[in-house]
Amino acid sequence: MFYAIVALDHPGTLAKRLEARPAHLARLNALKDEGRLKLAGPFPAIDSPTPGEAGFQGSMIVAEFESLDAAKTWADADPYVAAGVYRDVAVRPFLAVLP
Q1: Contact of 78 with 30, CB cutoff 8 Å
Q2: Residue 72's pLDDT is what?
Q3: Strand positions, DSSP E, the chain
Q4: Residue 51 — very low, low, confident or very high, per pLDDT cuts 50/70/90?
Q5: What percent of the chain has pLDDT over 70?
Q6: How many angstroms separate the CA atoms of 42 and 47, rounded?
Q7: Does residue 99 carry a pLDDT above 90?
Q8: Which residues touch 34 (CB under 8 Å, ≥6 apart)?
Q9: Which of 2, 5, 31 is nearest to 91 (CA)?
Q10: d(Cα 73, Cα 56) in Å, to the nearest integer?
Q11: Cα–Cα distance between 53 and 45 in angstroms, integer?
């Protein structure tokens, strides 16, 4: 089943986010290589695809996991969590209807 992981950043953590980004992307690429990643990306802090110094407000990942517990365990181990970027992480079952 798919699960949506929606994480919100602490304010002022752009530098921490950028530092942890390679490890974060490595985990996402592993899901992609396994055929389990539906989509992933950040929420820009401003209405722009390149927010610059404004940074980001959080992230969303939709991926396939064995269970809700497995999705939560995976989300809890994210490098952005360890780096103190995320202030809140919600994991919910997700049904892909369209497209």
Answers
A1: no
A2: 98
A3: 2-9, 37-44, 56-64, 86-94
A4: very high
A5: 100
A6: 12
A7: no
A8: none
A9: 5
A10: 23
A11: 9
